[in-house]
From TrEMBL:
Pfam families in the cross-refs: PALP
Keywords: Lyase, Pyridoxal phosphate
Cofactor(s) the protein requires to work: pyridoxal 5'-phosphate
UniProt cross-references to Gene3D superfamilies, sorted A to Z: 3.40.50.1100
PANTHER family in UniProt: L-THREONINE DEHYDRATASE CATABOLIC TDCB, THREONINE DEHYDRATASE, MITOCHONDRIAL-RELATED
Species, as recorded: Prauserella oleivorans
Top-rank lineage group of the source organism: Bacteria
Protein name (record): Threonine/serine dehydratase
Residues covered by the Tryptophan synthase beta chain-like PALP domain: 25-299
Amino acid sequence: MAIRDVRTPGPDDLARAWEIVRSTVPPTPLAPATDTGPALKLETFQPTGSFKVRGALSALAAVGPSDEVVTASAGNHGLGVAFAATRLGRRATVVVPGTASPAKVAALRAFDIELVQTGTSYAEAEAHALELAARGARFVSPYNDPDVVAGQATIGYELAEQTRGPLTVVCGVGGGGLASGLGLWAAERTDVRLVGVEADAAPSMAAAVRAGRQVPVEVGPTIADGIAANLEAGSVTIDLVAKHVDELVAVSEAELHAAVRYLAGERGVVAEGAGAAAAAAVLSGKVSAEGTVVAVVSGRNIALDVLARLLTSGAP
């Protein structure tokens, strides 16, 4: 696949994203720290259950009403684009693999979008989406897109209104859109430290940062499927993470499972595996704190049977 020419977002992009996001969805709550764990930025309260709606709103607001966008997704990003398209009156096509979660496919069908199921993997769905976009639509990557990155930065602007520094902000890292956006926000401040968290099963960003470019890695099975994939070659998020994220750490499957149970049992928060990654890193002692520690709980869209098994047996 050819490397796409994607520009790096700048201050004007972040300002535009902040305007559209705060005028469309309310700020998500910040649950204060307790004796057992960190403060929690609850992106689980987003209308689609995930922070991805922020980047989707930013990206779809950047195109005209008569233009069409195309995206590929295995779940949360597609739901974000579907929500944004419906709310903003844009035309959108969401391509998902044939193996996508039936629950997420059903949720996507509830929106006024064109839904296409093809292939057996995200990579195949993405290849088809790029083919469709080549006919004249705007391709909106889940992470390798300046407007998407800018949209994710809006979490930081909300934190600025909800906290007093200094802060250590911890977030999950897959493609790096969230970490890049938060990194650009944190670059404007002197009192914020940013820690990114990968799953041991998918250290794609750490490998890319070490090499200075995308490096294919073997992706193993993980409950954190939302952050488990190889990066797009040439992704702008690689340089942004290298420049603006202070530390990258990785968590094990056992630590992810424990974090999902902790969030549900002690904090009353339902989180998917990827959504619990930041909390897992803090709870396992892998984050050195400076000031208030905030773990971004990035999504809640976990299958109920998986959650039930995690809560009762400790295994998905």
